[in-house]
């Protein structure tokens, strides 16, 4: 299945991805971070939210409601992430 999505940008280690949501509330930087939680069994945490332009921190409690619902960009990041 091919879904339209925003272009996203990956960190060098492919554990952090960012893209820009564009809608009636403006352009908002969204970030997905994968963090390894344990090795056996291997478990990763997926963090997602708006990135603060000043601090770089991720706010996973904010509700942007930018009317674009671009969940496919998150799925795309998972496809390219190196889980090891």
List the helices and strands and how they pair.
Blueprint (H helix, E strand, L loop, with lengths): L8 E2 L5 E8 L2 E13 L4 E9 L6 E2 L12 H9 L4
Antiparallel strand pairs: 1-2, 2-3, 3-4, 4-5
Write structural notes for this entry.
The chain has one domain (9-80). The model has no long low-confidence stretch (mean pLDDT 79). The protein contains 1 helix and 5 strands; from the N terminus they run E-E-E-E-E-H. It starts with 8 loop residues before the first strand and ends with a helix. The protein is mostly beta strands and 84 residues long. Strand 1 (9-10) and strand 2 form a beta hairpin. A 5-stranded antiparallel sheet has the order 1-2-3-4-5, covered by helices on one side. The protein has one helix at residues 72-80, and strands at residues 9-10, 16-23, 26-38, 43-51, 58-59.
Portion in strands: 35-45%
- Tell me about the largest β-sheet: 5 strands, antiparallel
Mean pLDDT: 79
Number of domains: 1
Q: Which residue ranges are poorly predicted, with pLDDT under 50 across at least 5 consecutive positions?
A: none
SS-based class: mainly beta
- How many β-strand runs? 5
Order of helical and strand elements: EEEEEH
Q: For the terminal residues, how far apart are their CA atoms?
A: 26 Å
Helix content: 10-25%
The Rg value, from CA coordinates, equals: 13 Å
What form results from the Cα inertia axes?
A: elongated
Oligomer classification: single chain
Number of helices: 1
How would you write the strand order of the largest sheet? Answer: 1-2-3-4-5
């Amino acid at each position: 299945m091919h879904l339209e999505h925003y272009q996203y940008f990956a960190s060098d280690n492919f554990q952090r991805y960012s893209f820009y949501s564009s809608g009636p509330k403006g352009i908002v930087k969204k970030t997905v971070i994968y963090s390894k939680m344990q090795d056996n069994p291997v478990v990763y945490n997926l963090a997602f939210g708006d990135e603060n332009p000043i601090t770089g921190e991720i706010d996973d409690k904010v509700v942007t409601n930018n009317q674009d619902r671009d969940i496919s960009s998150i799925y795309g990041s998972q496809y390219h992430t190196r889980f090891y």
